[in-house]
Design brief:
The complex is a heterodimer of chains A (about 425) and B (about 300). Chain A has helices at about 1-20, 30-35, 45-65, 75-85, 100-105, 115, 125-130, 155-160, 170-190, 200-210, 230-240, 250, 255-260, 275-280, 320-330, 335-340, 345-355, 360-365, 380-395, 400-420, and strands at about 35-45, 65-75, 90-95, 140-150, 195, 245, 265-270, 290, 305-310, 370-375. Chain A has about 425 residues and is of the alpha/beta class. In chain A, strands 1, 2, 3, 4, 5, 6, 7, 8, 9 and 10 form a ten-stranded mixed sheet that branches. The longest helix of chain A has 21 residues, at about 1-20. In chain B, strands 1-2 form a two-stranded antiparallel sheet. The longest helix of chain B has about 35 residues, at about 15-50. Classes of the chains: A alpha/beta (about 425), B mainly alpha (about 300). The interface of A and B includes residues 253, 382, 417 and 420 of A.
Chain lengths: ~425, ~300
C-alpha cells in the first residue's frame, strides 16, 4: 500500500512538473499551438461542404502541426445549448447570424479583439451582425449567402418573353405575374407551371416588411407584426399572393423553391447561392439566368445569411482557437467557399478568387453590401414561428392581415412574457 | 375482498429465518435498479418540480424562486389552452377508435378466415416502421399534388387539390388518421395473443344458446379481453397525450398552421430548447401534462374495471 502511494505521488509530481514546463512564457504562437488539439463544433452539410472543410483542416494541420477534431451536430441550436449547460461545448463553433443575439446574452462566447482578428477586412454589415450593441465582437463571419432572382429562360422563351421583360421593381410584378401566368396556363394547362414562388418565412420576408421605417420588434424586443408599417408592407405582399401567380412550394406540393424551379414548375424564384450548385448537379437540363432581386419602394434589397466562428468562453485552447479562426476566415476561406458554394465574407478574398468571372456568383456577390442580414434581436425565432402560424389564414382568406398579425403578436408576446 | 384477506394473512404470518434471509437477498438484487431509477427518474422528477417554481437560467445556473407564477401563467395563457385542447382532442378521437378497431380486427383474424398469417404480417408492418418515416410518407400522400388528392379529383369529388398540410381544419386530422392507422396493429397483436387463450367451449356454449356472431363478439370476446383493454387504453392514452414527433415533423417544429398541430409536448420542447431559455415554464407544462395523464388513466381504469368478470 505504501509503495503504491509513493508511486502515485511520483507520477503526480512528474505530471505537475511537466505541465509547468509547457507554461513557459515567451514562446511564439506557433510553438504554443503545435501538437495541440482543437475541437470545432459544426453542423453537417452536403458532401461538397464536408470535402471543402476537410481540405481547409488538412492545410491548417500541415501548416501549424496542430490537430482539429470536428464535432458535428445534427440540430446545433438544440444540442449545443445542452453542451453549454454542461460546460462541454467545443472550443470553436459555428454561430448562425440569426441566433447570435441569443447566444450573446448567454455569456458563452469569448470576446474577440478587433485588431487581433483584423475585422476591417470583412464586409462591415456582416461584422455588425456579430457585434453586440455595446460594440463587443464575439464571432468572425466565415462566409455569406445572398438571395437573388432565378429565371427559367427556357419556359420564358416558350411563352414568347425575354429576360428583359421581367420587371425590376416588385410593384410591377403585381401586373406582370398574372399576365405571365395566363400565358403559362394557355401553354401548359391550368395549374401546371406557376409564375413565381415565395416563402412564408421572415428569413425571406424581413427585408420587405421592414421597409419605410417599419420594424418587426419594438425597443423591448416585443413583436410588432401588426404595426401599421409592417401591415402596409404585408398588404403589398398579399397583393402579389392574390394574383394567384405567386405561390409557396408547399402550395405547389413540393419541398422547397429549388425543387420547384428544378422540375420546371415555376419560372421565377428568389433563392440563395446554395441553390446554384444544386441546380447544376441535380437539374442540369434546366437553363436559367440569375438577376438582381427586384427593388421595392424604389430601393434595392435582398437578404443575406451569414455564419461565424465563435470561441467558447470556457475553451481550453484559446490561442489555437484564434489561430484556426484567423486561418479559416483568412487564407483558408477561398478553399472553403469555393467548395461549399457560398460567398466569401471579405472583399479581398472575393477579388482574389475572381468570383466576378462567374456571372451567377457575381450577381449574388454584388448584393452582399445592401442585403439585410437575417438577424433581429433575441426574440425573432418566436415571432417568426407566430408569423408562420397565422400567415396561412391570411392567404386562405379566413382573416385579414391585421386580424392575423394581431393574433400572431399576441401569441408571440405571450410566449416572450412567459419566458421572462 | 381479496385485498383485505391477504392483509390479514400477512399480519398473522411470521417469517422464518430462511425467508428473512431470502428477503435480504431480494433487496440486494434490487439495489442496482433502485439506485438507477431513483437517480435518473426519481431525482429528475424532483428537479422538474423544483424547476417549475423557479425562473431558471441553466446557462448561468441561476434559479430565482417565483412561487406559483409559472402555474398562474400556464392557466391564463391562451396558447397553452390551445395546446391542451389539441392534445385532448387528439387523445379523445384516437384512443377509442384505435382500441375498438384493434379489437374488431383481432377478433376477425382470430376466426377461421383464409390468409390469416398474411393479414397478420402485413397489418403489423406499419408498427415496425419508424413514426418519423411514416409522417413523411403521409405528408407526401396528403400534399396538394399527392395521391389522395389525385384519387379524389379522378373520382370527381373535388375539383382542385386540398392543401391538407397547410389547412388548419385538416392538419391535425391527418395526424390522427396516421396515428390510428399505425398503432392499431400493435394493439391488435396484443388482443390476438390474449384471444389464443379464449376457450372455444365458450363460443360453442353461446352458439347452442342461439347467439349470432355479433352477440358472441360483444358478450364473450369483449368481456374476455377486458384486462387487456385496460392495458391498451392506458398505453394509448399515455402515448397520445405525449404525442410529439409527428407534430414536430409535420409542422417543422412550429405547431402550425394556426397552432392546429401544437401539442403540449411540442410546446414543452419549444420553451425548453428554443431561444426562450424558459426551462421553468417548460417544467410547469410538463408537470401539468403528467397530472392530466394520471387523472385520465385513473378514470379509464375505473370505467373499465374488470371486477364484474370474476
Amino acid at each position: 500500500m505504501k509503495k503504491l502511494f509513493s508511486m502515485v505521488l511520483v507520477v503526480v509530481l512528474a505530471l505537475s512538473l511537466a505541465s509547468c514546463g509547457t507554461k513557459e512564457t515567451g514562446k511564439s504562437v506557433e510553438e504554443k499551438i503545435k501538437g495541440k488539439t482543437l475541437t470545432v463544433g459544426i453542423w453537417g452539410g452536403n458532401d461538397a461542404e464536408a470535402a471543402a472543410l476537410n481540405q481547409v483542416i488538412k492545410d491548417f494541420e500541415a501548416k501549424t502541426g496542430a490537430k482539429i477534431e470536428l464535432k458535428t451536430y445534427t440540430d446545433i441550436n438544440t444540442q449545443i445549448q445542452a453542451d453549454f449547460i454542461g460546460g462541454t461545448a467545443p472550443d470553436v463553433f459555428y454561430v448562425d447570424g440569426s441566433m447570435f443575439p441569443f447566444y450573446a446574452t448567454l455569456d458563452v462566447m469569448l470576446e474577440l479583439d478587433a485588431k487581433e482578428m483584423g475585422t476591417d477586412a470583412y464586409y462591415s454589415n456582416l461584422m455588425d451582425a456579430f457585434t453586440t450593441d455595446e460594440g463587443k465582437i464575439y464571432a468572425i463571419p466565415k462566409d455569406v449567402s445572398v438571395l437573388a432572382t432565378y429565371v427559367n429562360t427556357d419556359i420564358l422563351e416558350e411563352v414568347g418573353l425575354q429576360l428583359s421583360d421581367i420587371p425590376t421593381a416588385l410593384e410591377d410584378m403585381v401586373t406582370f405575374l398574372p399576365e405571365l401566368q395566363a400565358k403559362l396556363d394557355a401553354k401548359y394547362g391550368v395549374g401546371q407551371v406557376t409564375a413565381m414562388t415565395y416563402n412564408q418565412d421572415l428569413a425571406r420576408n424581413l427585408h420587405l416588411f421592414e421597409r419605410n421605417e417599419a420594424s418587426l420588434i419594438d425597443e423591448n424586443e416585443m413583436s410588432t407584426l401588426s404595426s401599421d408599417g409592417v401591415i402596409k408592407n404585408l398588404d403589398f405582399m398579399m397583393d402579389l399572393v392574390n394574383t394567384g401567380a405567386y405561390k409557396t412550394p408547399a402550395e405547389i406540393g413540393l419541398g422547397w423553391n429549388g425543387e420547384v424551379f428544378g422540375t420546371g414548375k415555376c419560372v421565377i424564384m428568389e433563392e440563395g447561392n446554395w441553390v446554384y450548385g444544386n441546380l447544376k448537379q441535380n437539374y442540369p437540363e434546366i437553363n436559367f439566368e440569375v438577376i438582381d432581386m427586384p427593388t421595392y419602394l424604389g430601393e434595392k434589397s435582398s437578404m443575406s445569411f451569414t455564419v461565424g466562428y465563435a470561441v467558447y468562453s470556457k475553451a481550453k485552447e484559446v490561442a489555437l482557437a484564434k489561430e484556426w479562426i484567423k486561418y479559416a476566415t483568412g487564407d483558408g476561406m477561398a478553399t472553403w467557399v469555393a467548395g461549399a458554394g457560398c460567398l466569401p465574407s471579405r472583399n479581398d478574398v472575393a477579388t482574389e478568387m475572381k468570383i466576378e468571372s462567374d456571372p451567377v456568383m457575381k450577381t449574388h456577390l454584388a448584393q452582399v453590401e445592401y442585403a439585410v442580414p437575417w438577424q433581429k434581436g433575441t426574440t425573432i425565432s418566436i415571432i417568426n414561428s407566430a408569423y408562420q402560424n397565422y400567415i396561412q389564414s391570411v392567404v386562405s382568406g379566413e382573416m385579414t392581415t391585421v386580424e392575423a398579425m394581431k393574433k400572431a403578436d399576441t401569441q408571440a408576446n405571450d410566449e416572450i412574457n412567459n419566458s421572462k | 375482498m381479496t385485498d383485505s384477506r391477504n392483509k390479514v394473512a400477512i399480519t398473522k404470518y411470521k417469517y422464518t429465518k430462511r425467508e428473512k434471509g431470502e428477503h435480504k437477498q431480494a433487496y440486494l438484487f434490487l439495489t442496482p435498479s433502485i439506485l438507477i431509477t431513483s437517480i435518473f427518474i426519481g431525482l429528475s422528477v424532483l428537479f422538474v418540480i423544483y424547476l417549475s417554481f423557479h425562473k431558471v437560467n441553466l446557462f448561468a445556473k441561476t434559479y430565482t424562486p417565483i412561487g406559483l407564477k409559472n402555474y398562474f401563467r400556464a392557466f391564463t395563457d391562451s396558447t397553452t389552452r390551445v395546446a391542451f385542447k389539441n392534445t385532448l382532442t387528439f387523445s379523445l378521437v384516437v384512443v377509442p377508435i384505435q382500441t375498438f378497431l384493434a379489437l374488431v380486427i383481432a377478433a376477425v383474424l382470430n376466426s377461421k378466415i383464409k390468409g390469416k398469417m398474411f393479414f397478420r404480417t402485413t397489418l403489423f408492418l406499419p408498427t415496425l416502421t419508424s413514426s418519423s418515416a411514416l409522417t413523411l410518407i403521409f405528408m407526401f400522400m396528403f400534399s396538394v399534388t399527392g395521391p389522395i388528392n389525385g384519387i379524389l379529383i379522378k373520382m370527381g369529388i373535388i375539383d382542385t387539390g386540398i392543401n391538407y398540410l397547410n389547412n388548419p381544419n385538416f392538419s391535425l386530422k391527418v395526424i390522427m388518421g396516421m396515428n390510428i392507422w399505425s398503432t392499431i396493429p400493435y394493439y391488435m397483436t396484443l388482443y390476438l395473443a390474449t384471444l389464443q387463450d379464449l376457450p372455444a367451449s365458450m363460443y360453442e356454449a353461446a352458439e347452442i344458446d342461439g347467439a349470432n356472431s355479433i352477440k358472441k363478439f360483444f358478450y364473450i370476446t369483449v368481456p374476455y379481453l377486458k384486462p387487456m383493454t385496460t392495458y391498451v387504453l392506458l398505453t394509448s392514452i399515455i402515448g397520445t397525450l405525449q404525442m410529439f414527433d409527428q407534430a414536430y415533423i409535420f409542422s417543422n417544429g412550429s405547431g402550425g398552421p394556426a397552432n392546429s398541430t401544437l401539442t403540449v409536448s411540442l410546446m414543452i420542447y419549444k420553451y425548453a430548447f428554443g431561444t426562450q431559455n424558459a426551462m421553468g415554464f417548460a417544467a410547469t407544462l410538463a408537470i401539468m401534462l403528467a397530472v392530466l395523464i394520471m387523472i385520465l388513466s385513473l378514470i379509464s381504469q375505473k370505467v373499465n374495471k374488470s371486477e364484474s368478470l370474476y
